[in-house]
């Protein structure tokens, strides 16, 4: 194994065990186009990361995998010796992708979308959508989801808090009986 490959493996290991900014720096070096204000908890950007584009303010949760090739062609090696099939993945601006999603080749997600946990996406998904399932489908508009968040009795203002500061607020909320 040559020195360049060893250095790359070390850099990947460090990025995998670091915060979002370190992951983004590493992935950009691998060719992923990543906009500003993104937050990434995954490092699974396939063997062709240069086929992935993320807009601004994209959040991708842990366990999500982006796949830019279709390995199924291996079943036809006699007919297509040495061939592979690839597809781009393009994710718009202001998109949240939940935990453990799979995004397959030739997928485009429009601006202002939420992708629910565990969803499997292939194809084109319009802007302003909430997308869930396997196979993934648009289930409502982003405006409907915004309304549901607005009226959710479990919505608490804790985003900027540390875990120790947040814990008593969340515990109090869930132990206080509501009349």
Report on the architecture of this protein.
The chain is α/β, with parallel strands linked by helices and 179 residues long. It has a single domain, classed as Hexapeptide repeat proteins (UDP N-Acetylglucosamine Acyltransferase, domain 1). 26% of the residues lie in helices and 23% in strands. The protein has four helices and 14 strands. The chain has helices spanning 3-16, 20-29, 142-150, 163-175; strands at residues 33-34, 39-40, 52-54, 58-60, 65-66, 89-91, 95-97, 102-103, 107-109, 113-115, 120-121, 124-125, 129-133, 136-141. A hairpin with a 2-residue loop joins β13 (129-133) and β14. The mean pLDDT is 93.
Q: How would the blueprint of this fold be written?
A:
Elements lengths: L2 H14 L3 H10 L3 E2 L4 E2 L11 E3 L3 E3 L4 E2 L22 E3 L3 E3 L4 E2 L3 E3 L3 E3 L4 E2 L2 E2 L3 E5 L2 E6 H9 L12 H13 L4
Parallel strand pairs: 1-3, 2-4, 3-6, 4-7, 5-8, 6-9, 7-10, 8-11, 9-12, 10-13
Antiparallel strand pairs: 13-14
Helix pairs in contact: 1-2
